[in-house]
Design goal:
single chain; about 375 residues; TIM Barrel; two-stranded antiparallel sheet; 16 strands; about 30% helix; about 15% strand; Oye-like; Aldolase_TIM; OxRdtase_FMN_N
Length: about 375
C-alpha cells in the first residue's frame, strides 16, 4: 500500500513534468477526415482537456495495413503527421502534454476500410463484427504474416513514432491491449504460429518486445509507453497463463527504461499487484472494469474518484480516465473540488461532427 498519494500530486515521466496524476485515456472518437487527417475540431477537443497531467490521443494507425477504423487520423504519411501539428500546438499552448497512441489493428481490420486484406500472427478471424462505412461486417480471415513481415510490422510502430515526434507529440504509447496486433501475438487463439513468435511464452511476447525496442531506439525510451489489458478477452482474444505471460513481458520491457506501462484492470487484483511489484518505473492503471453478462464482457464500468484513489493506494503512479473525459473537459478541476460530472451521450461517442465532442462546457459555465 502507498500512503498519502493524491491524484493532484506532481509526477515525472522521462523528464516530462506532469502537474497531476490524472491521465486522459486513449479513446477512439474517429473525428478525422476520410483521408486520415486530423482536424481543427480535434485540436479544440484536446486543448480543452489540457489540464490533465497527460493526454493520450485516439488510436492512430501507423501504416495502411494496420488501419482499423474509418475516419481515424493517421501517422501513415508525412501529410498525415503534419495534420497533427495544430493539435499538439494547441495542447502545448494550453500548457498540456500529449502522447500519441499507435494502434495497429492487425486482424481487426477490413479491406473496405484499408484497401488491403488485414494481417495477423495467423490466418484466424476474430469472431466479431467490425465497424465499416457500410455498417457492421464480420471480421475477415487475415493473412498470416511471413517471418520477414513480422519484423516489418514491428518496425512500423517506430516509423510512426518518428513522425509523431516530428508532429509535436511528447511521446507515444504502443497499443498492446484490447485485441489489436500486439495483443494478438500475446494470445493463444489468434496466434497459432510454430516459429519463434508463437507457442511458448517467450515466443508470444517477442513481437511486443521487438516493437517497443524498435520504437525506443527510434525516439528514445523515455518517450515510449505501452498499454496492456491482461486477460481482457476483447475482440475474441484468449490468453493462457496470464500471470506468467505478463510477468515475462514486463520483465523484458522493464530493462528498457520506458516512460510508463499502462495497464487496464482487466485481470484479478492479485495479478495486477504482482505486476506492479515487477515494474520499476511509472505504473499507470485504468481502473475501468468490464461488467459481465453470461460470462462475456459487454460494457465498461467507468473510472471514478473512488477507483482512482483505490489504485493509487495500491501503488499506481498515474490513473487514466476514459469516458469521464468525454463530457468533462475540466475533469481535473471537478475531481479536485468534488463537483458533479456531466454525462455524455453514447450516440455521439464515435464519428460525426462537433456535437458531443467539443461542445461540453467547464463546470463554472454551467453553475
Amino acid at each position: 500500500m502507498t500512503e498519502n498519494r493524491s491524484l493532484f500530486d506532481r509526477h515525472e515521466i522521462g523528464g516530462l513534468a506532469l502537474p497531476n496524476r490524472v491521465v486522459m485515456a486513449p479513446m477512439s472518437r474517429v473525428r478525422g477526415t476520410a483521408e486520415g487527417l486530423a482536424t481543427e475540431a480535434m485540436a479544440t477537443y484536446f486543448a480543452q482537456r489540457a489540464s490533465a497531467g497527460l493526454l493520450i490521443s485516439d488510436g492512430i494507425q501507423p501504416n495502411r495495413v494496420g488501419t482499423a477504423n474509418p475516419g481515424a487520423a493517421g501517422l501513415r504519411t508525412d501529410a498525415e503527421a503534419a495534420s497533427w501539428r495544430p493539435v499538439t500546438d494547441a495542447v502545448h499552448a494550453q500548457g498540456g502534454r500529449i502522447f500519441g497512441q499507435l494502434m495497429h489493428g492487425g486482424r481487426i481490420g477490413h479491406e473496405s476500410v484499408s484497401g488491403l486484406q488485414p494481417v495477423g500472427p495467423s490466418a484466424v478471424a476474430a469472431n466479431a463484427p467490425l465497424f465499416t462505412l457500410a455498417g457492421p461486417q464480420q471480421a475477415p480471415v487475415p493473412r498470416a504474416l511471413t517471418l520477414d513481415e513480422v519484423g516489418e510490422q514491428a518496425r512500423s510502430y517506430a516509423e510512426a513514432a518518428v513522425r509523431a515526434v516530428g508532429a509535436g507529440f511528447d511521446g507515444v504509447e504502443l497499443h498492446g491491449a484490447n485485441g489489436y496486433l500486439i495483443s494478438q501475438f500475446l494470445s493463444s487463439n489468434a496466434n497459432l504460429r510454430t516459429d519463434s513468435y508463437g507457442g511458448s511464452i517467450a515466443n508470444r511476447i517477442r513481437f511486443a518486445v521487438e516493437a517497443v525496442e524498435a520504437t525506443a531506439d527510434a525516439i528514445g525510451a523515455h518517450r515510449v509507453g505501452i498499454r496492456l489489458s491482461p486477460d481482457a478477452g476483447i475482440w475474441d482474444v484468449v490468453e493462457e497463463d496470464v500471470p506468467e505471460l505478463y510477468a515475462a513481458l514486463l520483465a523484458e520491457l522493464d530493462r528498457l527504461g520506458l516512460a510508463y506501462v499502462h495497464l487496464e484492470a482487466t485481470t484479478d487484483e492479485a495479478t495486477m499487484l504482482d505486476l506492479r511489484r515487477r515494474w520499476s518505473g511509472t505504473f499507470m492503471v485504468n481502473p475501468s472494469t468490464w461488467t459481465q453478462r453470461g460470462g462475456a464482457p459487454y460494457g465498461p464500468v467507468p473510472t471514478n474518484r473512488e477507483s482512482a484513489d483505490h489504485w493509487l493506494g495500491l501503488g499506481a503512479d498515474l490513473i487514466s480516465f476514459g469516458r469521464a473525459y468525454i463530457a468533462n473537459p475540466d475533469l481535473v478541476e471537478r475531481l479536485r473540488h468534488g463537483l458533479p460530472l456531466a454525462e455524455a451521450d453514447l450516440a455521439t461517442f464515435y464519428g460525426g461532427g462537433e456535437a458531443g465532442y467539443v461542445d461540453f462546457p467547464a463546470y463554472q459555465q454551467t453553475a
